[in-house]
Every structure is written in C-alpha cells, then in structure tokens.
Amino acid sequence: MNQLVAILITLFFLGLIVSFTVTQKLKDRYAFLWLVTAIAGVLAAACIPVLNRFALWLGIAYMPTFVFLITIIFILALLVRQTMSLSNQSEKMKRLTQEFAVMEKKLLDMQKAAEGQRDSV
C-alpha cells in the first residue's frame, strides 16, 4: 500500500512538471532536470524493495535514512547549480549595466556636440 501511494505521488509530481513545461512556466533549461528527477522518483517508488536491499548492502539499516541522504545530496547539488547560474546572471547584468552607461554617455556627448554645432551656425 505504501509503495502504491509513493508511486501515485511521484506520478502526480511528474504530471505537474510536464504541465509546467507545456505551459512554459518551467523553461526547457530546467525542465529536463526536473523531468529526470520526477522519473527517478517514480522508479525509486516502484523499486522500494531493491532500495531496501541496496541500503542494507551499504550498511544503512533503515532505508528512509538512505532516501533522505540521497535527497539531501540532490538538494545540495541543485543549490550549487542555482548559485552558479545566479552568479553568471549577476555578472551578465553588471556587464550590461556598464555597457548601457557607456552608450548613454556617448549619446549625451553626441547630443551636446550637435547642440554646439547648431549654436555656432
């Protein structure tokens, strides 16, 4: 019964990810990561006895501890990935702001030069 509930919950999550991807609420860049995660969740829910044996083989007596360990590692990896993406976006924003300021200065200089030519004529 627990396995059925786990499978239903992970299938619901997979459906949400597909829905968000179709409606463009989740961009393709991140959709693949979440689709793989949802599919892994469905497979894990379907293979609970195998996960139990694998956890015991690793020396983990209580399988939910193994699942939490994998989840924490995944969340940390996701946080590192998001932090790298945020750092990259921040750097791009800084560069664009600097380029905009230079272009604005050039435009103001050109306007002043054009006004100066008009006044001298």
Q: How many distinct beta strands?
A: 0
Helical content band: over 70%
The geometry reads as elongated
Query: What Rg is obtained from the alpha carbons, in whole angstroms?
Result: 27 Å
| Uncertain segments | none
What is the string of helix and strand elements?
HHHH
> Number of helical segments?
4
The total domain count is 1
- What structural class results from the helix and strand content? mainly alpha
End-to-end distance, in Å?
Answer: 90 Å
Query: What amount of the residues lies in strands?
Result: under 5%
Let me know the largest β-sheet. Answer: none
What's the overall average pLDDT, rounded? 88
Protein name: DUF2304 domain-containing protein
Keywords: Coiled coil, Membrane, Transmembrane, Transmembrane helix
Coiled coil: 86-113
Transmembrane segments: 6-23, 30-51, 57-80
